[in-house]
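We were asked to recover a plausible sequence for a given structure. The inputs and outputs are reproduced exactly as logged, with field labels preserved.

PROBLEM: sequence recovery
POSITIONS: 78
GIVEN STRUCTURE:
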């Protein structure tokens, strides 16, 4: 009966440690924020929206590529 009691307490202690470690590891994981989306800008030439970090700017206007930056803003009826 003493061996059974010892095995029972060892199992309880290991289960407690396992549950505690799972709780602690889940608490440390950073949760992605929903409002953490990259700010988007619109290309002055073609109108495509791209992340601001990938866009090229000139004269307070944004462009999606070097070619569109060189062509400049599109004029005309849109």
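RECOVERED SEQUENCE:
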């Amino acid at each position: 009966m003493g061996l059974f009691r010892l095995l029972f307490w060892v199992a309880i202690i290991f289960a407690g440690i396992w549950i505690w470690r799972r709780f602690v590891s889940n608490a440390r994981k950073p949760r992605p924020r929903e409002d953490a989306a990259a700010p988007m800008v619109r290309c002055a030439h073609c109108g495509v929206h791209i992340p601001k970090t990938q866009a090229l700017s000139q004269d307070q206007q944004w462009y999606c590529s070097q070619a569109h930056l060189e062509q400049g803003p599109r004029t005309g009826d849109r």
